[in-house]
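Gamma-glutamyl-hercynylcysteine sulfoxide hydrolase
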Amino acid sequence: MCRHLAYLGAETTLRDVVVVPPQGLYEQSWQPRMQKYGTVNADGFGVGWYADGDPQPARYRRAVPIWADASFADVARVTRTRALLAAVRSATEGTSQGEDAAAPYADGPWLFSHNGRLDAWPDGVGALAALLPPAELLRLESRCDSALLWALLRRRLTAGEPAGDAMAAVVAAAAAATEGRFNLLLTDGRTITATAFGDTLFIRETPDSVRVASEPDADGVWTEVPDRTLVTATREAVHLHPLPDRS
């Protein structure tokens, strides 16, 4: 299990979004309040962010707890952005432990994170893996369920499928193949696309920003997203679309 967060809005620092808010993502790494599966998120972390004028995001990922990385505190304090995606990781049993398994995953303008797990990993996800050509399976960034879901989503995005349609299709395929929790989070620096499927998801809107997160911090007013929902959000508007039930 994991916790993740995406932000679009006025220029700010990584520190002000990820570290400073009480009960925010930084604190959720050791004391999540709403996490039903797992107790801490200490198997790694990552942040991806966009610099003005560059559509391709930068990333900082480690295989250590976020609180144990003193260098990140300095990076977060001085790095400014208008869009980011961050995650703290609780690894699924049997998955890779290196920083290559820490979200966000990236390709071109996209950043991706998965909060959840494929319950049948690894032996029972053959039907899902079979949706990828063998060469793409061999190129998975890491040996973990999140990397498989990212490869499936990336394939659709690369083919030109709209992000919301692509994400809904991947969640449907995952739910058909195995039990699990499929909260996905994606951004290209302009739009956030997310799913609530088996775990909590919240949105916070202000006049100059929008946040989508696994659980709220204690700063501002958050709205819970109903389960089985697709979220598409920009700074100007948030839209919710029902996802089909498992059946």
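thats it. The chain has one domain: 2-242. Helices lie at 14-19, 25-28, 70-78, 126-129, 134-138, 145-158, 163-177. bye
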